[in-house]
Design a protein that fits this description.
This protein has 204 residues and is α+β, with helices and mostly antiparallel strands. It has seven helices and seven strands. It has a five-stranded mixed sheet with strand order 1-5-6-7-2. The protein has a two-stranded antiparallel sheet with strand order 3-4. Pfam families: ASCH.
Length: 204
């Protein structure tokens, strides 16, 4: 999740959620018996990456179907920052969770549903998961290069030291634990990759 993207506008997120949930059929029962409290409250809204440019590029890849997975550091959930600037522990994503994805300006743009979650070391990420992340040339080598840089920035931002002190001054610790998440786009409908050039050659 990005710490640099503008905070979402609560009214905009609520309006997007109302539209999205009706478009994908999440509000059909509420028409008969009335909306439940969980239907009325939007799911978490967040952006990919750690910059507006990265958030926009990765969002574009989600919208055209190239990106159906994401990875984050376990430490990001253990040292989460809330809207008031406080810190605490954030729950890990679970299968079935819904999320609203923001663009680089904090505007809600997509609704996704988590389809699988697992915890693995950086070194255990394979070529198939790298391809599902939909970044750069889709190769594992490119994934490793880009995410070493990204997770190093993330650890520094969260004040997290490498797991193995021996690598603190010599390189990236590949034993760090990651949350590997796969998801499906629920809203808006997927568009062709050729419709959005900003999704091409995304790198961190």
């Amino acid at each position: 999740m990005s710490d640099e993207v503008d905070l979402p506008d609560g009214d905009a997120v609520a309006a997007f959620w109302e539209l999205a949930r009706r478009q994908v059929g999440l509000g059909r029962l509420g028409v008969i018996v009335g909306p439940s409290p969980t239907e009325s409250i939007p799911p978490p809204a967040w952006a990919f990456g750690d910059s507006p440019e990265l958030a926009d590029g990765l969002l574009a890849a989600v919208l055209n179907g190239t990106k159906t997975a994401c990875s984050s550091g376990v430490w990001e959930y253990e040292t989460a920052t809330d809207a008031q600037g406080g810190t605490g522990t954030e729950a890990l994503p679970q299968e079935g969770d819904l999320s609203i994805i923001l663009d680089g300006r904090g505007h809600p743009r997509a609704l996704v549903r988590t389809t699988s979650v697992r915890i693995a070391a950086f070194a255990e990420v394979d070529a198939e998961f790298a391809r599902l992340e939909g970044e750069d040339d889709l190769s594992l080598e490119a994934w490793r290069i880009g995410h070493q840089a990204y997770f190093s920035r993330s650890q520094a931002a969260h004040g997290v030291a490498p797991v193995d002190p021996a690598v603190e001054s010599s390189g990236f610790d590949e034993s760090v634990q990651l949350v590997l998440e796969q998801f499906e786009l629920r809203y808006p409908p997927r568009r062709s990759p050729s419709d959005d050039a900003t999704a091409d050659h995304i790198s961190r």
